[in-house]
Design goal:
2 domains; 4 helices; membrane; about 100 residues; transmembrane; Cyt_c_oxidase_su4_prok
């Protein structure tokens, strides 16, 4: 009789299937953040500085949700993609800051 176990199962590193529950919660949270952002901008009566700060905070939260649940960056074995993404963010932020600095002088 043939043994149909994968190499990961033989080493005790069996991948546990999460199911759709976490994806549904992440989707609902993303929709709620989007609705809140739209409502804040549509209200027009809220201080614009506060709206900008809240939009940036909600955007960062949205990025972490997308990266964790939809791109599965929370799982093991994704160290190199995370390093590459963080390096890209650092490079882009450096370019933006240097471009702003260059245009001001």
């Amino acid at each position: 009789m043939a043994n149909h176990h994968s190499a990961a199962e033989e080493h005790g590193k069996r991948h546990k299937h999460e199911g759709p529950q976490k994806h549904i919660v992440a989707f609902i949270f993303s929709v709620v953040l989007t609705v809140i952002a739209f409502a804040m901008v549509a209200a027009g009566e809220i201080n614009s500085t506060f709206v900008y700060i809240m939009l940036l905070v909600m955007a960062v939260i949205q990025v972490f949700i997308q990266m964790s649940f939809w791109m599965h960056m929370k799982d093991r074995g994704h160290l190199y993609p995370i390093i590459a993404i963080l390096t890209g963010v650092f490079v882009v932020l450096t370019i933006v800051v240097m471009a702003e600095y260059w245009t001001w002088w």
